[in-house]
Amino acid sequence: MINYYSLLGIPNFSAWSVVRKAYIVQIKKYHPDVNKTKEAILICKQLNVAKETLESSDKKALYDRRLRNFLAYGKTGYTSTRTTTRKRRSTPPPMSRAERVRRRKEMQDKQKLEQYAKGLKQFPVNVRYALCAL
After folding, report:
1. Which of 13, 82, 94, 97 is most buried (CB neighbours < 10 A)?
2. In-domain check, residue 104
């Protein structure tokens, strides 16, 4: 994660007025019209992204939360800043044709057994036992 504050040369979580002044100073150093190196072009692009991120209060708040979490836990322990965790639905792996046929047959057998049991409930218990013995 790129720390935009260190890129601008200011302390972390600085106010927008400080960010703006630092941006102006840095962009004067690395602007492609002033500095002709390839690195200057890359740094200028990063400075523009930093300014865009830190100028909006919503984007700045989100970036500050992520940076605070990143600084606290480091690269290996970085976790999302979501307050709620939703369980993702996992899609089952695709079934082969033979598996689909086998499952369909199992469902049909289950339905036949349920229909048979439903039909038996119409008869008294002693007749049911006699029918099951056949």
Report:
1. 13
2. no
Q: Return the structure tokens found at 39.
A: 């690195």
CATH number, domain containing residue 55: 1.10.287.110
Residue pointed to by tokens 């996992």: 90
In a domain, 32, yes or no: yes
Give the side-chain half-sphere CA count within 13 A for 42. Answer: 3
| Phi, psi (degrees; rounded to nearest 5) at 78 | -70, 130
For 25, the domain range is: 4-73
Q: Please state the pTM of the whole predicted model.
A: 0.55
pLDDT in tens, 64-116: 999 998 888 876 554 555 555 666 677 777 888 899 999 999 999 999 999 88
- CA dihedral sign, ordered 61, 58, 46, 78: positive
State the CB neighbour count (10 A cutoff) for residue 29.
12
Query: Is 13 domain-assigned?
Result: yes
**Structural domain contains residue 16:** yes
Tokens of 102: 């086998």
Structural domain count of the chain: 1
The CB-based long-range contact list for 128-133 (8 Å cut-off, 24+ gap) reads: none
